[in-house]
Amino acid sequence: EVAQSCLMQAYALSGHIRKASKLFGEMPEKDVVSWTALLKTYAEAGILSRAREAFDSMPKRNIISWNCMLQAYTNTGHLCEAETLFYSMPAWDVVTWTCLIVAYTQNRNLSKALDAFQRMPLRDTVCWTAVMQAYAQQGYLREASAMFENMPVRGSVSWNGILVAYIENEEFDSANKIFTKMPFYDIVSSVSMLTAYAQCGHILESEKLFAGLIFKDLISWTAMISAYSTNGRVEESKSVFTKMPCWDIVTYSVMVQAYAHKRHILEAEQIFQTMPFQDVIARNTMVAAYAHCGHMIKARGLFDGMEDKN
RNA sequence: AGGUCUGAUGUUGGGCGA
Fold this sequence. Notes:
This protein has 310 residues and is mainly α.
């Protein structure tokens, strides 16, 4: 049954909700890990009711199950319910506290996030990094920087977090210092810098970073398409689009946006129509593309047909 | 009896809008 449990988790991790719940129903023996994986799948899909149902049906719960349920509430914006659950939990660990800190951060409640950080008995790199992000998100760069300097151990996420914080506050000199001081290579920070350079019009630097990537993943390919588009180089965008090994919904949307930006509405439309499926953001992009190019009737038509307007 | 490693949870990068 461990094998089935693993398969279940594979479905769960890849977001195959239907397959996961089908297999789950067919499993003769369900251990706490399978139940928790199912719970997590519903939580990530934002189906709070099913998550709660799974949580209530579990014959046994451990700290991880409780943490997943806590996340189900916080990820769907139910902070009050999350707090209630938090206080009814049999135990708290460092993950529990970090979930709470992140939830407060998402609600822009820095003081409660800091309070939780003070109250937790043990602090690891992840929660230090989360609090650093809490400061950064509120624009307290100096405090974020102090957290970065003071944390006992810095992981790659900590380095990337402070790097992006500097970039978002347009402190490019500090960002550059951090980037060159990093003790290891990391694709995430490279792509962050690539995007930052593009937004400043330094496309040559973006190209250098892209060429220097040891491994190019889907996100980095897409970031390069976007970088060219930001600098008005739609032909290069298209060339990257053609060259890359695989695409996802974001890649297509970026390419639609790139064409629309240059008012190449026919090409934009063609990319849009070749998408394997379209999410709400892709349709929003296409509506904006039509509008940008003066095709108000088509924009309106697409808009009116959308079932999932946000 | 004690320890280590194996399946599930928290923090960072690409798209519209905010």
